[in-house]
Structures are given as C-alpha cells and as structure tokens.
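User: Structure tokens for both sequences below?

Assistant:
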Amino acid sequence: MSLKLFTIIFLLGFGLVACDNGNDITENDETELVENFEISGTISDAPNTSLYLEAISQQGVISVAETRIDASGKFTMAGNIPGFGLYQLRLGDQAPKIIPLTLVPEDKVQLNTTTDQFELQPNISGTAWAKTMNRYMKIYSRFHVGQAELLQLRDSLPSDVLNERFLRLKAPLDSFALIEMNRDPGNPFNIVLQGSATPAMGFNSWDPKNLEVLKKVAEAYEKEFLNSPVATTMSNQVYQIEMAYNEHLANNSGTRPAPEISLNDPNGNELHLSDLRGKYVLIDFWASWCAPCRKENPNVVRLYKKFKAKGFTVFSVSLDNDKQAWVDAIQKDGLIWNTHVSDLLQWESPMPELYGFQGIPHTVLINPEGNIIGVGLRGAELEQKLEEIFAKK
C-alpha cells in the first residue's frame, strides 16, 4: 500500500485522528511516558533500515517511536500512545512503505515479512485484530495489482467506465469488510474496514444497509472504547451520514422544488429555469476550466440527443469568469442546446450555495413540475435514470 493509497483509506475513514484527545503527542514533549505498546519482528531483507511508528493529527504526521532493524532483520520498538487509534508503520526513508496499525494500549504486535511483502502481507500477530488485518491485506494485494492496471487506462476510458470497473474491482474488499464489521463490530481494525461502508462516491450507488453496519460499529466502539475520541468521532460521522442520506432521499423524491435560476446567456438575454417547465431538465453546473466537466460533456451531448425528442433537455450553468473561454468551450464541445447561462462570477456566484455544492461537475435532474428527482447523476447512472423515466412514457 503506497502512502497515497493509505491516505485514501484514511480519508475514507473520516480522518479519524489518533492523538486528538486533549493529550496530544508533540515533538518536544519532554514528559516521560510509560511504555504501553510494543512492535517487534523480522523484516528479513531490510538490515539497518529505519522503521517509524507515526500518528496522523490535524497538525500533520507526528513521530511516536522509531527503531533501526539489525543486521539479521530483527527489530523491537516500544513507546507510548495516548489511546486507541489509527497509526501508520513506515519502513525506510527513501520511497517508504507504509501499513496501517489500529493500535490499542498494551498491544504487543509482531511482524514477519520482507521488504517486498511489507505492504501486502505483513503477517501481523499478537493482537485481537491481527487475523482480520492479515485476511484483509491478502484481498487488498489483489486489488492493488488490479488498480495499477486500471490506472494505466485512465486516459483512454470514459470516467463512468473507469468508475464501474473500479467498483467491480473493489467489490471483494467491500464484501469482506462488511461481513467482518457485522461479525465483530468492536474490532479495532474496523477503523480501516469502515471505509468500505461509507458513501465515498455519493449515495446514488450506495447501499443504505451499510448505514446499519456503521451504526453497529459506532455502538460497539462506544462500549468497547468508552470516552475514546475515535468512538466519539465515529458516532458523530455516522450521524452525519444518516442526515446526508435523508437529504439525498428528499432530493430524489420529486417533492422538493428546484430553486429558480435567472441568468444571462452569452448574448445577454436573461433565461429562466422555470421557462423549461413541462420537460425533464438536467441542470449541469460546469466551467470551461474544469477538466472533469469537459471530459463529461460528450456524454451529456450524447444523452441530450438520445432523449431530447422524449422531453429531455439541459440547462447549463457555467462557473466561468471569462466570457470568451465559456463561449469557446460551448462551441468546441458541441453543446448544441441553447440554454447556456452564467453570471461570470466563478466561485463568487450564488449558485453553489443555492444548490449546495462545492465542486463541479455537479448535476441536478428535475421533473416537468420543476421538482428535484436526482442529484449528482453522471455517466451510466444518469443514463440509467433517464432510461427508467422514459421507459414509462
């Protein structure tokens, strides 16, 4: 697992902080702390290599302990951690290799591996969560290989195809994680596994049953790790996911009116979203400078051509601040509908606040009555939604 990949998993875990409990570790803390963990073992082909245990805090990476592997590949590291949390074990200084460790005070962790296998098969033992981690890492190793192959195709495949392949590749990891969290919700390694249950790519393809799994983990952590910042953070984030999911349901129910948009087109004529009542409208927030938007535009054009005769159209809202760049992009990308508007204020536009988004491309699908029936639909998801709508016509 590279540093970048580990960071992704960490962020999917809501950025749970190992040392954010009012008793932060600092580089200059001279207080003598009692040792409450030990990590030892063998990395057979890494003589004289440095090994570091680090915590992730809002201030950045903080060193917890370090050691040097001896000539025979053996090492022992001990130190103090403030409590249960997610830490990282880093091997080496140049092109370092990193694995996550969900340490609990008094853990005695053993590793038996090699440099090449450090990130994929560390062979952890000695803790209650070791078996789960080892099984996860074996599945992850297959995902790792497949992901590297998929990354080679990122410039030659449409984003929706890449996303579909990525989700299919990640499915075994997610399946394992959900089964394990259900089976043992109080397992410390669930800090890593819970990333498989979160709506990292939005709610449109997310299984709401995952919310019940996350609730079980949060409740178990509140019991197992009473007063732990990790447990509190987990509970808070599960609550936020539930609230966001309820918001998603409201946005897909067809009962929430889309806020009116009244902006000028490139010719200075004021257009109104409400003028399109009677049609299914995709409000497409984009900009000429937004590479993902431009990459998605051919798909929007294709769907417009496919469904326009059935009552579908597009209302494009640009977050440009350069009129000529906006007009040139409309022409170059072949955005053939005539409903293009912008206030040319880029992120100073009131549109992001009005429609509740922080990044583009962002889409909102509304029905002929002007009510929202989908948010964030793109690629295959958007096409599937439109197929469902017009199959009933």
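Moving on to the next sequence.
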Amino acid sequence: MNDTTQPPELEVVNPFDLNVIGSVPLTSWETVDGYLETAHNLFRKRSNWLPTYKRIEVLNKAAKIMQERAEELAYQIASEGGKPLRDARVEVTRAIDGVGLCTKELSHMSGREIPMDLTAAGAGRIAFCSREPIGPVVAVSAFNHPLNLIVHQVAPAVAVGCPVLIKPAGDTPLSCKTFVDILYEAGLPEEWCRFVACDNATAQQMITDSRVAFFSFIGSGQVGWMLRSKLAPGTRCALEHGGAAPVIIDSSANLTTMLPSLIKGGFYHSGQVCVSVQRIFAPEDFANELAQYLGESTKKLIVGDAINEETDCGPLIRPNEVDRVAEWIDEAKQSGAQVLSGGNKLGNTTYEPTVLLNPAPDAKVSTQEIFGPAICVYSYVSIEEAIARANSLPFAFQASVFTKNLDVAMKTVRELDATAVMVNDHTAFRVDWMPFAGRRESGYNTGGIGYTMHDMTQDKMAVIKL
C-alpha cells in the first residue's frame, strides 16, 4: 500500500496582521541527502555540466518572466516580508537586473596566460589558467530582501554552473520558491537548483556535509560564525552579517540636503537592513538641532501594512522583534537618552520610528545592531573623536560622511574602518555589481554579483611542455 502522507508544511504569515498567506512543504533530511548526492554526482561527471550558452538562455528567460510578473513579485515581498510596496517594487527591479548582470559577468569569467620562462626552470613551457565551477553550493538566506538576496546567492551559482541548494528564511520562503520555480519554467533542470525549507537541525546537517563545496550565508553573526566553524574540510564560504553603521556629520554639511538621505537610510524597511543608518555623530553645537530636525521628519512617516501604497514603514518581521526593540529603547531612555520622536510600540507588530539623542555609550542601541526603526545621534568635539567612536565596535561594514570639505571627506574615507564609505550619502546605498562585505565580526569574503561568481569558481591551470 502506498504511503500518501503529506510532508509537514511551514505556514507563512503577513507580519503586520499575522494572517496566514501561504505555506511551503518542509524538506526532510532524507530528501536533502538525495539532493546533495545528485548535486555531487552532477559536478563530478563533467559531461553533465550545462554549457555556458544554455545557462545564459535560462537566466535571460527567467529575467523576462520576472519582468512580466513584477507587480505580483512585489506584492509577495510586501505580504510575506513587510517591506513597503514601493520599496518592494524597487527590490524586484534590482532582482531582475541582478539576473541579467550574471549573464553579462560570464563574458568576464576568463583566464590568462601565465609566463613560464621567467627563470630557466620554466623555460620551454606555455601555461594558461581558466575558471571552472567550484562544486555544489548550499545557500542560506535572510528575510529582509526575500527575492533579491535569493537572486544574489542562486543566480551566480546557476550562471557559473554550480548545482545549488537554497534554504530561505523561515519567515519569507514564498519569494524564494517563486524564483526557483521561475528558473524551472525558464528551462533549468530541477537537479541544478533545489528549494529547501527545513528545520535548523536539517539545515546544519546539510551545510556541514562533506559534499558541499561552497557555503553562502546571509544572517546573524552568531549563527554564521558558528556554522563556519563546523564546515567540512575544504568547504569555502562567504558570510554576510550586520553592523551598526556610523555616519559622521561635518560642520560644513548641508542640513537640508542630508535629512532625506538620513531618513531613508535609517528607516528603509523599518531599519531591518544590515547597513541601515544607526549611529550619527554630529558636532557638539549642531547635534541637538540635527536630532530635532530628524525627529520632526520622522514623525511624518506613515507606519502600517506594507501592502498599502501609502505606507513608509511596515511591521517588524516578528512580534518578538518589536518587544526586543522596545526593551533596547527603554533601556536607552532610562540611561539618559533624549527621545526626539517615537519611543513607543504601536502594537504587537509595529514600532514607532524613533530618534534618540546621546544614548549612553554602553547602551545596547550604541553597541549592538538595532535592526529596527531607530536612529541615534551623538555629539562630538573633534573629528578624530567621532572617527574613534565610529570604529570602536567589533562590527565594520559600510559607513558614511556628510561634508563639503574635501580634506574631511578624504580623512574619513581613509580612517573609517569600513569596506565602503559613502560621501554625502547614507550608509545603506548599494548597487548590485559593487563589492559588498563586512569586516571583522560583520562578515567574511565579498558579496556582489561578480564577486560571488568569482568565489563560486576556481582556477585550473594547464602547463604544456613544448
């Protein structure tokens, strides 16, 4: 008698009203084990590899399908992830462009000739190197960009010819599954990309399996570094964690032009971004005025259901995140921080966009990633002090400076401990072809479409004795 038992499912809720909006099947270890074995065998037998032109055809068709369904994809992002619809539309555009960028980058995936006769030992030989796929990829993603992050982890693997297993965030699996299904519709054989929604134990067993050649992780540093320590010998990896992004305001900066940028960088997706504006350092005689202006601007932001066109700030991803943010801000208030706007829960799933002035240096909002709708403004006496305080945490990702002074701009670019320093722009700026990475506890290796494709390939050299 056949077993008709259905696999357990993971329910997905709208994070604003907590109503169920869909579900995906949970994958057992037995199934994952079969996926890994198939991926391993695909890679080991070179005749199985998909030719480059075929991979380009699949990705181009996938981008076209995504373009045709752009509004549907945006609504799905807003519904499951709580990102306001206007921002979800931007994410879809980026995701489509990212898929296209993969095909363009393939034309740059070339080797080079290696000179051999630089010494007598190498004379009489010619040599060249090429790049080939590294092997099976396992990717684990985050909730805050449920389509674009998946594209950044999956499309490069498909482009360079690596079989890939993708585990989405448990809160936002629908966009991931949709993208995988689009790849199938575009002609990618299913064995080359597998959607894996599973429990943590199964995920860890999958990640640490010896058949995995490359592990891509986007999420908390605590989890990422733990998983890296457990990888099988030979598994390469890339980790993207968070930070507490600093902004330095110089006395020459233009208040009018910087305000919209700081508001966008701090409250985009309710601050649930790994490079969201968090710590703003302003001159002592200017910090209070800046905080007041930020507070007044923040009060105009509309908080609500992300699927509503007028919403500026949607819900936090889970109610316990609202509670955590509330606890951190209450701690800051009790330790002397001045509240210029917000500072209160609006309900179980939303928190007021908040501006704090001079929280204590040891408060959680000053020392850890808030990952919520809050900006902290601190006063400083000298630019050297501001830079030292900006660099004082074990996290280092993106930073920014607002100034009209070229010397100040170059000093902060040189001395801020960051992988990217934005001049007269917020810390959350990104385009998908630029290097994107955390230093120290904020990550390992470099993201960005082209950089990920490079990491998912490896050099092979041929040396020919004439």
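User: Anything stand out in the second?

Assistant: The mean pLDDT is 94.
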